[in-house]
Amino acid sequence: MHRVSKIVATGVATAALAASLTACGESSTEAGGADKGVGLAFDVGGRDDHSFNEAASRGVDKAGKELGVKSKLMTAKNGETEADREQRLSSLAEAGYNPVIGVGFNYGKSVNKVAKDYPKTTFGVVDSGATAKNVYGMVFAEHEGSYLAGVAAALKSKTHKVGFIGGVNNALIQKFQAGFEQGVRETDPSAKITSEYLYANDDKGFNDPAAAKGKAKGMLDAGIDVIYTAAGQSGNGSIETVAGKKGTWAIGVDSDQYLQPGLAQYKGSILTSVMKNVDVAVFDLVKSVKDKKPLTGDKLYTLKDNGVRLSTSGGFIDDIQAKLDAAKEKIASGQVKVGESPKK
């Protein structure tokens, strides 16, 4: 295997198994190649969340188009257990899919556990690190991209009041919050920042647009005119609410939400989006397996290498692009260090 250098990063019903497991724990039907294609297990919200999962699916689509790799896609449901996730991943590996990829930090434990039972299969996990030797951990500098979102929000706000909505209050989403708040503070020290979460520890926070609508309405009523939401599919509700009030802006996440067909009627209110190139990471892994040089270990996708970036669709940040470019350069050069945890 081609092992990537370690980089420290922070943070369903299935078909019957085709054959029993052998005594050593390895599947007797494990393909060990890319014969069946890539097996992708989405987090809650599924492919059409217009955000995080959608980004991963674009990587699979590209692999199908450019490499001729077939795929099988499966989706998580709210309230799943570790056993649910393990079963989904095992069913994909058992059926001969390679690589098998879990999309989202919730798959961190299950991917690394199941991977040990299928040593000939390469596994991948988005937003979590690798502990098993045949796992590729795809992690991102969300805080760096979110810093730029904070700069944009501060420069575009007329009321000097901006908001952040997180789906679930955990270490990963706190990175989005921390970067955003730092970007706002260092651009407009007088700005007031309101940060709120939909749920403390329930993954439904990534699949509850109604909850995000309520949070966004409260913020708009309080005079906040720019809202950045990092909450997967829930963010669609926030964007819809912002679009209903003239003179306010929404900032999207993970995918370029201005270009999402399902959000087309609101795109005039989407200032920009903090994009995580999950599609690039997924494609990198699929191609490596097809080339028989499977990637393993952890890879951190940063602002410096465009692993995270701000979208420019709509032209709404064209007038402040020079300032955004200057901020990006300071981060890339190390002049500005972006924190990963919100300041107390």
From TrEMBL:
One of its GO terms (cellular component) is plasma membrane. The keyword Signal applies. Keywords: Cell membrane, Lipoprotein, Membrane, Signal. It is a lipid-anchor. It is found in: Cell membrane. Residues 41-340 form the ABC transporter substrate-binding protein PnrA-like domain. Residues 1-25 form the signal peptide. CDD domains: PBP1_PrnA-like. Belongs to the BMP lipoprotein family. This is BMP family ABC transporter substrate-binding protein. It comes from Streptomyces kasugaensis.
